[in-house]
Design brief:
Length: 405
Amino acid sequence: MKIDAANIRSDFPFFNQRERLKNIIYFDNAATTQKPHTVIDTISQFYSSYNSNVNRGSYLVANEATESFELTRQKIKKHLNAKHLEEIIFTSGATQSINLVASSFVSTFLSKGDEILIGKLEHHANIVPWQLACEKIGAKVRSLGLSKNGLIDVSNLKKNISPNVKLIVFQHTSNVTGLTNDVKNIAKICKENNIYSFVDGAQAIAHENINVQELGCDFFCFSGHKCFGPTGTGVLYGKIKILNSMPPYMGGGEMIESVSLENSSWNSLPHKLEAGTPNIAGFIGLGSAFSYMNNIGIEKIKNIESVLANELYVELSKVKNIIFYGEKGSVPICSFNIKGIHSYDIGAILSEQGVCVRTGHLCAQPATSFFKTNSFIRASLCFYNTKEEIHNFINCLNKAIKMLS
């Protein structure tokens, strides 16, 4: 099958159904991606044909629902190259995945006076849960050394490590700069120093080939809605030995082995960490999203996006008085400002022209301090975007600048 922009965009109803969307330039993919019709149809088919709860009933449609639901777990295990199926935990998103580990892992593996290292470019969801967990046990969150581009300074990482450091938390790819950390080497340093590693992969999952065994991290998480799947779905990968040692995050149905009023015992993984009825339709749809990505091919996606990232950076570089945050990377995420003009004003006029970009602190307020600004303009693309859209975006941006200057 020949894969080009027209073929790809025809798979996404968002770009084709409504008249008003024909001229829309959707450059906010780091916030959420659009959904291919195969994902939408898969969710609709579940609700219309075999809607039932999972891992409970033994009748026909219940079995079909459970099989489809668990098939997604198998797809994700294969996609991440996890060693065990039980290492794939379903959550409501990266935020719940982080909160799960912050609650269950920190309370078990950390003590008063221990430290967690976190960089200043992390998303709020990868900062606040660790702060809350540390407050409960008297542990501390400490700043991790970064390079001028906001990446973890691997060469100086060991200097940040004290005997009290028990966990290093970091993003695979930045939602501000689009730059990618050296996850493999960071995880290696952690292992050499008996430190656990947690990777927020929310911005990497749709752009990179993720092999958790090769990366060597202890935890990896992502949200389904950032990789063409439904909102309300997410995945936590954790090494099975660690997950087995963690207490349940929530109590409820499916996570139990036995219950009495006096005491209860817990189910085996992954169910021990998946209390309650999950987003069944969502996870079946997420499985369809992974099939869609794999049918195109991650390497093909990377090649398309590398070209787009370069085009975006080159064209933006021609804009007068532009200020970049970070350097050009292979992931097409670029944050910038226009000297003397507030990001919100630029964003408002771009919106009037049909351009969808993100403005503000990007849920990364420490990053604004790091880069000495108060907000960003972020353009984030994916493989269904085009060079033509980039050129139209630049024209709209220049119009906005002219109006505000």
